[in-house]
Amino acid sequence: MPETGLTIHELAARAGVTVRTVRFYSARGLLPPPLIGPRRVGRYGPEHLSRLALIEELQHQGLTLAAIDRYLQQLPEDISAHDLAIHRALVSSWLPEGVQEIDREKLEHRAGRPLDEADLDRLTAMNVLERTERPGTFRVDPGTLHLGVRLLDMPIPVEAIRAAREVMLAHSRAAAREISRIFHDEVREPGRTGEQRSPAQIRALSGQMQPLVVQALVTTFQRTLTEEVRAWPREPDPPDPPASS
């Protein structure tokens, strides 16, 4: 089943939420309206699926709906499903609680397509899923599954994807360590009234800053990557065909 043209029930099943949750988010303006198809049936696309995953992750991080609304409003209006998935992956704290054990049928249902053994090996190599001791059962983070499935059809070797992931992990750890140190020193300073902040207040401030810092990192990375790609050498224009005599 393709990701485009999902009914609200199919969208909810793919995202692992209830139809009531989808309608609630839509009523709050967190989800854009669906495209209205024949018989006035709303159809949802990959952007809705990725946005749902991001909303669920932000809630998992402890953000209120008002804070999530502010976060989403700062995203570009034409942001793609792919970029939404990147936001979600970077917001995620990669806690074990975010990983689910599902069987192959549910895995393929979440992926929206059949998965052969080569696909499973490729997703495993990309650390999108992990095989368990029980045949046909996998550990998977639903939020990164959609990103991994999209990479299946790209002509990129697994080795290149894994190498890129190692680079991102190394640099993101270094950036996180330095940014954490900077903000940790700042939030430990007394508040505006001069009173010393309690450990609970420090944790609350850190939690509020985390999604904002992640969003700034994602935006900066996307712009820098776009500049790097634009600087790639261009292919020479093909020669003009010889003039006919």
By CATH, the topology of the largest domain is Multidrug-efflux Transporter Regulator, Chain: A, Domain 2
Number of helix segments? 10
Largest sheet: 3 strands, antiparallel
Radius of gyration, in Å, reads 21 Å
Distance linking N and C termini: 54 Å
Order of helices and strands: HHEEHHHEHHEEHHH
Shape: globular
Number of strands: 5
Question: How many distinct folded domains?
Answer: 3
The low-confidence parts are: 93-97
- CATH level-1 class of the largest domain: Mainly Alpha
What does it look like?
The structure is a single chain. Helix 3 (46-60) runs parallel beside helix 5 (81-91) and helix 5 crosses helix 8 (142-152). The strands form two sheets. The protein has a three-stranded antiparallel sheet. The protein folds into three domains: 1-93, Multidrug-efflux Transporter Regulator, Chain: A, Domain 2; 98-154; 158-190 and 200-228, no CATH class. It is built from ten helices and five strands. Helix content is 58%, strand content 6%. With 245 residues, the chain is mostly helical. The radius of gyration is 21 Å and the shape is globular.
